[in-house]
Design brief:
The structure is a single chain. This protein is α+β, with helices and mostly antiparallel strands and about 100 residues long. The chain has helices spanning about 5-20, 40-45, 55-65, 90-95, and strands spanning about 25, 30, 50, 70, 75-80, 85. The protein has a four-stranded mixed sheet with strand order 3-4-5-6. A hairpin with a 3-residue loop joins strand 4 (about 70) and strand 5. It starts with 6 loop residues before the first helix and ends in a 10-residue tail after the last helix.
């Protein structure tokens, strides 16, 4: 049976991946960009989202070219199409060009 992530494990993996990416400071937040060209591309990518809860589902989703964003539970997401960016649903609701923000 496939092991499911708990919130702590997801948070650790997500934060490690996010902190390894280049970012810009804006309004006291670290902003990690979405690597998509223009607003239409970002919105189109968000429309293809699906949720995963297991490691096997995550690996399949990241490697699936037709899926743009893969939500890991309600905590975060990973984009596929080879990008493997970490995304935050909260940040996406505020600004579709923001992939993740960390308030310190």
């Amino acid at each position: 049976m496939e092991k499911r992530y708990d919130k702590g494990q997801i948070e650790t993996v997500v934060l490690q991946a996010v902190l390894a990416r280049p970012y810009k400071e804006f309004g006291g937040c670290r902003i990690y960009p979405l690597h998509a060209e223009g607003e239409e591309a970002v919105v189109k990518n968000l429309a293809g989202s699906r949720e995963v809860t297991t490691l096997a589902e995550l690996e399949d989703a990241v490697n699936a070219p037709e899926v743009a964003n893969v939500f890991i539970g309600r905590f975060a997401a990973v984009t596929s199409k080879g990008m493997k960016n970490v995304l935050s649903r909260t940040s996406l609701a505020k600004d579709i060009f923001c992939a993740f923000e960390i308030r310190e």
